[in-house]
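Reading group handout, session on sequence-to-structure problems. Before we discuss, look at one worked example. The prompt was deliberately terse, the way you'd type it at a terminal:

> structure TRAP transporter large permease protein

The input record follows.
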Amino acid sequence: MIATLLFVAFLALMFLGVPIGAALGLAGATAIALANAETQWFGLLAVPQNFYAGLGKYPLLAIPMFVLVGSIFDRSGVALRLVNFAVAIVGRGPGMLPLVAICVAMFMGGISGSGPATAAAVGGVMIAAMARAGYPAGYSASVVAGAAATDILIPPSVAFIIYSVLVPGASVPALFAAGMFPGVLAGLALIIPAVWLARRHKMGQLEASLPRPPLWRSLKDAAWGLAAPVVILGGMRMGWFTPTEAAVVAVFYGLFVGMVVHRTIRLRDLFPILREAGELSAVILLVVSLAGIFAFSLSTLGVIDPVTRGIVESGLGERGVLALIIVLLLFLGMFLDGISIMLIFVPLMQPIMQHYQWDVVWFGVVLVLTIAVGQFTPPMAVNLMVSAKIAQVRMESTTRWVLWLVLAMCLAMLAVVVWPQIALWLPARLGY
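And the output record:
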């Protein structure tokens, strides 16, 4: 009865417009109090304890740093320089600007690891450029939103950091390495329908008339941005610093590029940058800590074991259970953000992983890739909201374009499910 009340209270609070973090915390605290009705106040001591326990984990220190890196590189003009360099390489023509948008967004994923941040940074440059070339605003917003979704796969990734905290045995370096090839595969899968749609509907007719940036000049301008993932990921691979320390190194590298090299960031810009990163980090970490209360109530009420038993004994078999999980995550991704989905459902899925002996790193990649699809699947896609706002279009106008991109990324996800070595080869090669 109390377990049922836990989920009913959570859903009711959500429908009433309560922020998802507060809904998780309130539902969990209510369930804990009712489960300890005789010693209600003593039982509620578990609430602050689990709030702190959900937050006091070393890997989570990297989250505000990588969020800050995204804000710094957004204001430093790195995205514009990368776009010019990519255009100088691929040239002008129908479908080339969408290709550039996807490639630059994937590269930005190696710097910030945040989909909405990349959608804002790349969208601010590419949507205007695509409008000048004659691409419809709804199409441009769809391409940028889909491209930004690859960023939670390509390391460094905030989603992988949170997954490593929730699942014992899933190390951050192994997850970062495992996400590399699936992230690239997802990007390549997006390029095919993006270019095909542009050419089929004769978009970008003015693109060929726009000037092509000089190659060596654009390479020189983009060099510091191109070096950022090498510094961040190369330093981790060489053992110079941990993923958490790499986030701090990335912050100082970004400040150096923005303040000394490009001089696009001044001292007076630091406060808005820090405030923006602090607000976003606070939201993420509050949701993480409040979800700790919800997860504790799940385990205290004994919800996890019956749910696991019911799924395992459903007769679906291993493949059927995996398909059910993927469909459920795709559906939830249309309404909830990725971090909330992980915090709510990973504790429920962990016993299923153990029962079927799924590799925790491979399952983490499948989980994050599925969540990535949800980030640009209407009606509540966070990346699509950002890009549609930049393009000044209603989300409804993106549907005819974005569903092709959703289908393409779903096919990439199925490839990782069928061939796990796409994710597991690189971590094994690197010895993780």
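Points for discussion. First: The CA atoms of residues 146 and 386 lie 11 Å apart. Second: The first helix runs from residue 2 to 15.
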